[in-house]
Amino acid sequence: MKKYTIAAFIMAVFYLGALPYNKLYAMGSKKEKVLKEEVQDINPYGGKSKKVDYKIVSEKINLNENNVSEVYKEIVKSINTAGVRRYPDSYRGEDYEILTGETLNVSFPEPGEYKVEIIESPYLSRSSVVVKNQNIFFETGYQGEYILNVTKDGMFYKRFRVNSKLKYSFTQEKNYDIILNSYENEKLDILLTSVKLSRVAFPDALYHKDTAFMILEKTLVSKKMAEAEEAAKFIRNNFQLDFMEKKQLFYFDMEIAKDDPFKYRDFLEKNIHEPGVSDKLVNIILSGKTLREKDELFLKKTYSETLNPEIAVYLGKWYMDKGNIIDAERYLIYGKEYYTLCMLYLQNEDLDRFDATLSKVSEDKVHQLKKEREIYHRAKLIKKEVDLGDEKYQGENYEEAVLFYKRAEEKDIEAARKLGTDMKIGMSYYYITRYEDAANYFEKAMESEKTPMKKAEIAYLTGVCYYRMQDKEKSMKTFEKLAKDYPGTTWSKKAMVYIIRLR
């Protein structure tokens, strides 16, 4: 039994994990059961008082796996539909009985200021008591014995016992046997129901923490996360835990969180000082593609403590992508990631360091790096030629521009075309009225172009070249195809002008 020190005017909240009865009825909303005829110790016709039996008799049943679910449903229904049991003013006894879920109404004839405390109750039970107009209203959704202490005008007035009884009667041992059997035989639904029933029927039982851990274990295996979280919450709210139990609950919580990546990450961050958690968080971060600011700080701190080369390499590559050359170089060296370090030097045209680092790269990757250097060197030369061509083009020196663009294509035509040399040569020829050459390069540019608007522009320029070459057939065909393939565009509208002329 547990002690209470609550004021009479405060109503306890009905809540407990897996509790079927969490609905507190407003006083007077339940159907009253007036017991003036059933409970009476004073003869209304005068003479000697007589004692009347007022005890509630629960229906004895043989609880088993086959009927436990139906019994639980009936008990929940009985609790949630219970009425008010009112004892008469004439009753002077100290023992009261109610069906679990009923509101006990006890009235006092003498006026005064009454207060009441629930001083003893079953351990896991929840109950409420309130005083209103010289009436006590007591209510609980749990079976068991409750002792109430009443004061009147600040002085002790009365102490009485309330025995809350379920609709059905069965033994605690039988209930626990069903729990154990369902746990051992992987019958999760029966396990959940029989545990909930035991909390209502036997809230003082010593096995409730154990059964909650049973539920936690089985629901995690079955991926019933709502039930697992409820079991964990029930354990935390109601029991003191030893070191191993706290550890067990921690790992259960971690498993529950795993189903939601964001929840799991938050869980790890909140429990970062637990053994092994830091490594798990590092693995999550290293497997991701983005790095938050706090992740960067966490990884740097973790590396300084562990010197984990995987962390160093990850940070080095991340800084490299961000263009932070100094930190990228530092962490790639820490992680001995020499291949990526060579690529860093190559991208930043530091060929001396590239050559110095190449000797530290594994033999199977040296050839690839040398090839990358050749590609880079060639690309650099091509870019230089294209840049010179662009310079001449901007200065309207189109013939020289063509020379540089063609030199770029001679070095590596595919690389040069990626820089737009076909279109640039075509435009250069267009401006110096070499329309046949311009049309040929525009057609080449059309083959590699992906953007619809750009394709429409190239088609228009090609059609204009044929028009100025006085090739009316090719010009009309080109403009009509443009109008059909890219209707509504600026270039198709311009093409219609030529189509009208050609007709």
Could you give a short description of this structure?
By secondary structure, the chain is α/β, with parallel strands linked by helices.
Would you kindly provide a written description of the structure presented here, covering whatever features stand out?
This protein is of the alpha/beta class. Helices cover 56% and strands 12% of the residues. The protein has 21 helices and eleven strands. It has helices at 68-80, 172-184, 188-201, 208-221, 225-238, 243-257, 261-270, 277-287, 293-306, 309-322, 325-334, 338-347, 351-358, 363-394, 398-411, 413-418, 421-431, 435-448, 452-468, 472-485, 490-502, and strands at 32-34, 59-60, 84-86, 95-99, 103-107, 114-120, 127-132, 135-140, 144-152, 155-165, 168-169. The strands form three sheets. A five-stranded mixed beta sheet has the order 1-3-5-8-7, with no helix packed on it. Strands 4-10-9-6 form a four-stranded mixed beta sheet, with no helix packed on it. Helix 3 (188-201) packs antiparallel against helix 4 (208-221), helix 19 (452-468) packs parallel to helix 21 (490-502) and helix 20 runs antiparallel to helix 21 (490-502). The model is unreliable at 1-29 and 34-53 (pLDDT under 50).
